[in-house]
Amino acid sequence: MSDTIFALATARGRAGVAVVRVSGPLALEAAAALGITGLRPRCASLRKLMAKGEVLDTGLVLYFEAGASFTGEPVVEFQIHGGEAVVSALLKFLESVPGLRLAQAGEFTRRALENGVLDLTQVEALADLIDAETEAQRRQAQRVLSGAIGVKAARWRADLIRAAALIEATIDFADEEVPVDVTSDVREIVLRLCEEFREEIDNSRGAERVRAGFEVAIIGAPNAGKSSLLNALVGREAAITSPVAGTTRDIIEVRMDLGGLPVTFVDTAGLRQTDDEVERIGVARARERAELADVRLLVLAPDETPDVQMNADIVVWSRADLSPRPGAVSSKTGEGLALLVETIRHRLEGQVSGSGVLIRERHRSALALARVSMESALELLYADYVPLELVAAELRSSTQAVDLLVGKIGVETLLDEIFSSFCIGK
Ligand SMILES: Nc1nc2c(c(=O)[nH]1)N(C=O)[C@@H](CNc1ccc(C(=O)N[C@@H](CCC(=O)O)C(=O)O)cc1)CN2
Ligand SMILES: Nc1nc2c(ncn2[C@@H]2O[C@H](COP(=O)(O)OP(=O)(O)OP(=O)(O)O)[C@@H](O)[C@H]2O)c(=O)[nH]1
Ligand SMILES: [Mg+2]
Predict the structure, then answer these.
(1) Binding site annotation covers 174?
(2) Which residues line ligand 2 (CB under 6 A)?
(3) How large is the average pLDDT for residues 336-351?
(4) Which of 173, 205, 337, 381 is 20 to 30 A from 211, alpha carbon to alpha carbon?
(5) Are 270 and 255 in contact (CB under 8 A)?
(6) Does the beta carbon of 73 sit less than 6 angstroms from any atom of ligand 1?
(7) Coiled-coil annotation: which residues (predicted)?
């Protein structure tokens, strides 16, 4: 019997309400120790929490029975006043209840995984949902948390098992006069799955970008107006600006929500040959970050022309207030900025192909693994003599790779790493 855990599920600190969660076989006993009995599943009731004959607090108490709770175990939730002393008093009391212990980071969610309430892709999506800073990230995490991948994986698994069953059946009939030829049916299944996996992997690359965020490097010659543009885009004096060429040396990064997309603007040193040792390091770093960025935004002074060497994705002239030209921006007056932001967003959205359901690198490798096995199964299926046992073996490895994707197998090594990134109480 797993022990019963408890923890504060809401953020620490003064708040209107705090939620303390208890999960495990002794959840109702924990409530009874506070003088609370007769809880009906899924009904919140206002109760006095009594400790040592005194009212510890008055709060809403919720009970979820095993098999119908977030963790799959009996869960009791105390929704109490969010004061530091109230929360500490309740946590201290729960610690004194025999059989209860403080939960480790992510342990509630780990139990939801162990009890099959969530699959591994949903666990990771839960972390992404909590980490989401922008609308695009929230939507993306929500899609996976709702089980989008798990549903697909279940269908893929069923198809692979059906294909393997057809092959195994043929092997069993092998000594019959006329073995049933199922290879065309199996080929059709495997071909379709290979195409689906390829599409899934491609789509998820874009989704991964939304999760991790995009980088837009602001590049150009010294004094082009790069830092002024950064400040105008982020709405604060994030970078020093001055009429002196070579003002910016270090990389300046500012993360912002650009219409729902997580974007980090990277201001850089003006690109030029220089004898100044420090500036030369700055220029080298500028080139490096420009190379790595998702979008290179080249800023030109009014009298400059774009240098193709800059490999820019978007070119914009500065100082529109001093020398108006179509598409130019002014960091002083804000002219042209809205159009520039829209251009940047449009460019970045183009990198999030399709309805990219987030599949993390680990998932992508599981899918890639499954695809490798299926492709070798296909090769065998197109051979003149079809070694059915080998085909069956390849299909079994594909099935295992799909199980890896949803965490049915091979997760032990991963779990500690995944749950250590969760907060306590989650
Ligand atoms: N107060 C509170 N709010 C919360 C959570 C929580 O644990 N407590 N959550 C924690 O992350 C999220 C909601 N996730 C939850 C998911 C499933 C169940 C649950 O009990 N499911 C049961 C019964 C559902 C029902 O009553 O219809 C089930 O799935 O069978 C509860 C919370 C966000 N908000
Ligand atoms: N009027 C006007 N002045 C601008 C505009 N953008 C930049 N400036 C001025 O041009 C000078 C250089 O601007 P910065 O933003 O420091 O240029 P930079 O490209 O970051 O320069 P380095 O860091 O040296 O590479 C500053 O004096 C700015 O105030 C603009 O849109 N309009
Ligand atoms: Mg600068």
Answers:
(1) no
(2) 220, 222-228, 241-243, 245-248, 269-270, 318-319, 321-322, 330-332
(3) 90
(4) 337
(5) no
(6) no
(7) none
Q: How far is residue 143's CA from residue 374's CA, in Å, rounded to a whole number?
A: 27
Same domain, 330 and 271: yes
Measuring from atom 5 of ligand 1, which residue has the nearest CA?
Answer: 70
Model pLDDT, residue 234: 95
> Can you give the CATH number for the domain in which 368 is found?
1.20.120.430
pLDDT greater at residue 311 or residue 48: 48
How many distinct structural domains can be found in the chain? 3
Q: What integer pLDDT is reported at residue 179 of this predicted model?
A: 53
Of 70, 122, 145, the residue with max ligand 1 atoms within 8 A of its CB, to mutate for a pocket test, comes to 70
**CA distance linking residue 36 with residue 28, whole number of Å:** 9
> How much is the pLDDT for 363?
66
Residues 32 and 97 in one domain: yes
Angle, nearest 10°, between helix axes 361-382 and 148-173? 30
Q: What is the extent of the structural domain holding 293?
A: 214-352
Provide the token pair at 167.
């092959």
pLDDT score for 194: 86
* Ligand 2 midpoint to CA 330 (Å): 10
Q: Is the Cβ atom of 17 under 6 angstroms away from ligand 1?
A: no
Q: Report which residue type is found at 5.
A: I
Q: How many CB atoms lie within 10 A of CB 184?
A: 8
**Residue 112: CB within 6 Å of ligand 1?**
no
Q: Find the ligand nearest to 222 CA.
A: 2
Q: What percent of the chain has pLDDT over 90?
A: 57
Residue pLDDT, tens place only, 209-262: 778 889 999 999 999 999 999 999 999 999 999 999 999 999 999 999 988 889
Q: Closest ligand to 221 CA?
A: 2
At residue 297 the predicted structure's pLDDT band, cuts being 50, 70 and 90, is very high
The residue whose CA is least distant from atom 4 of ligand 2 is 319
Distance CA 239, CA 274 (A): 21
Assess whether 240 and 330 both reside in one domain: yes
Establish whether 274 is an annotated binding residue. Answer: no
Q: Within the chain, what is the greatest distance between any pair of CA atoms?
A: 90
